[in-house]
Write a structure and sequence with these properties.
alpha+beta; 3-stranded mixed beta sheet; 3 strands; about 35% strand
């Protein structure tokens, strides 16, 4: 029987003292399996996918959020906070 737990990576990113981006990334990790090789592959793939999403958030999405922040400040609009949420449901 497999046992799985849900890990979460979350962070708030700031620009000029204001929060402009938040992310919460959930990903599964198998903590017990009868087949250790499959468990290791499963865990590796899920960690890798979570790290790719985190990298996207901290680079591309953060840059977009900075541009929006500058645009909103210049035009008198309120600060918008970008959010990225990836949930994981084990069925």
């Amino acid at each position: 029987m497999n046992k799985i737990k849900i890990n979460t990576a979350e962070k708030e990113l700031y620009y000029k003292g204001d929060i402009i981006l938040k992310y919460q990334i959930e990903y599964p990790e198998m903590i017990y399996s009868d087949d250790e090789d499959k468990m290791n592959i499963f865990n590796y793939q899920n960690r890798k996918n979570a790290l790719e999403i985190q990298e996207f958030a901290e680079n591309e999405l953060y840059e977009q959020a900075k541009e929006m922040y500058e645009y909103n400040k210049k035009n008198g609009y309120p600060n918008m906070i970008y959010e990225l949420i990836k949930e994981c449901n084990i069925t």
